[in-house]
């Protein structure tokens, strides 16, 4: 009986709790209406999105907010995505953006509206624009473009004491016709110049350009944009763009006024910073000391313009210094050329052993020379080493008249023999008369 009462109570509790359970289940399954996207929660994309070329390797992206955007009081921003030639994306509150990039491969970008202050509104759809790839036959544009900059003193403008020159070289495209002619331009900041001084190949095609005076600042941070196009009667020449960071093009000058002095075994080296718009603290140096007698060298790095080293006092040394702009003032670039060598020391001094051998050899050579001269003058050579007697000559003996009646003494025989031994006569063979 009690079990039936328990079951009946359980059924009543379930019936009472059923509406509450249904309400809870509905709240969990059915999404809230304010979380559903609608025209009030989804931002609208920008309008009138355009891309315009404003200079060599430079474009301006511009758009306008959507006039139908609701609510009006929401702070809006924009997400910009560069699709080509290299992918990149960034956010901005402005309605325009300037980009420096190569354009010979075309350019395309997209933009969308986003909430700026973390509002729950969703970002808009993307809108896109593009610049078509410039016309031109493949393989006709220049290749292997390299450019270097160099700083010199400017004696014409005291307000701008340093002048930067630019030198660029390139190769002709492999499919460019023989009558192709190239033309080079550079842009730095807002200044653009066309080359006026070209160097040509054997077919009189431009393959290098020299700008002796430019608007480039050696201490600037802007990219150097170089553009080359061309013309031909047989093909449309494809243009070419390239961007250079100044630290990668700057050919730093070597240090100047390098001096070296020795005092015993102490070598003291000093120099001045290169001709450059950068101040003293922006440079680091390498010093190379070459021992000409031992044919070895040492290289030391430093940030000051003096160096002291201990050397031996019996050698001659060659000293050279080179420089580079350090990362303290800009991104590290290339080292300069070595300065002209400065020679110090004295390699005439030789160790005692070497001197002894040299003096000994010289003495022996002198004695041999004197002895040879004495022997030559006094005919001692012939006396010490008489000639070997010649063989008997039967024909000459036939003409030799000897008197049988005359008795030849031993002294006379000796005299005859001595006589015929004189130069120009044959030696007589000893015989018995």
Describe this structure in words.
- This protein has 6 helices and 22 strands.
- The chain has 433 residues and is an alpha+beta fold.
- Strand 12 and strand 13 form a beta hairpin.
Which descriptors would you attach to this protein?
about 425 residues, alpha+beta, 4-stranded antiparallel sheet, 6 helices, elongated, disordered C terminus
Condensed summary:
The protein is of the alpha+beta class and 433 residues long. The chain has helices at residues 2-29, 246-249, 352-377, 380-384, 394-398, 410-420; strands at 47-55, 58-64, 76-84, 88-92, 96-100, 107-115, 127-131, 143-153, 162-171, 181-188, 191-194, 198-200, 206-211, 224-231, 240-244, 256-263, 266-272, 283-291, 296-302, 306-310, 316-325, 342-345. The termini are far apart.
Q: State the shape.
A: elongated
- Supply the helix-strand structural class: alpha+beta
Number of strands: 22
Q: DSSP helix count?
A: 6
Rounded to the nearest angstrom, the radius of gyration is 50 Å
Helix content: 10-25%
Read across the widest sheet, the strand sequence of neighbours is 4-3-6-7
Order of helices and strands: HEEEEEEEEEEEEEEEHEEEEEEEHHHH
Sheet with most strands: 4 strands, antiparallel
- Oligomer class: single chain
Report the mean per-residue pLDDT as an integer: 82
Strand fraction: 35-45%
- Taking the alpha carbons of the first and last residues, their distance comes to 188 Å
Q: Low-confidence parts, pLDDT < 50 over ≥5 residues?
A: 1-5, 29-39, 398-433
